[in-house]
Amino acid sequence: MAYDLAKVTTNGNNLIAQILANKSSLSIDKIEISDTQLPSTTDISTMTSVPKVVQTVSANGFSKNSNTLIVSTVVDNSSIRADYKAWVFGIWGSDSQNGQSQLIAVITSTNSPDTIPAFSGRTPVSYTYKFNIGFSNASQIKFNMINGSFATNDTVVHTTGNETINGKK
């Protein structure tokens, strides 16, 4: 797997600027996954939707530093009936004050995406992803977490202090 191209959309940059100006919060509404490879000529910054969505998942954690948001998610195959290649991930977000969801970032593979297998009927397979998204002033962004989301070990360890879990600080 190689997810080697990640860009913030124009709408994403505008949304973050609006959130900072209004002192509101960012909600990560959903993450859409497409099985369609984007043409090399695609200008990701102008995208407003994800083509041919095959699965939608929730973000389950986040962290940030001065200029990067890190959004994590778990993709499982319990509802998948046919194998697919996860070429594109589209992260949707909204301002806590107006609630209109927009495509804020796109992460894609240019040559070797993960294959999400069809559910066998027995044990589901899960993949964990962390997406690093560059924004200036990211440290000033406040987040709203969606109900039903959960914190990962990394989220807990990196936001609560000096704890160590499984050897990670």
From TrEMBL:
Protein name from the UniProt record: Lower baseplate protein N-terminal domain-containing protein
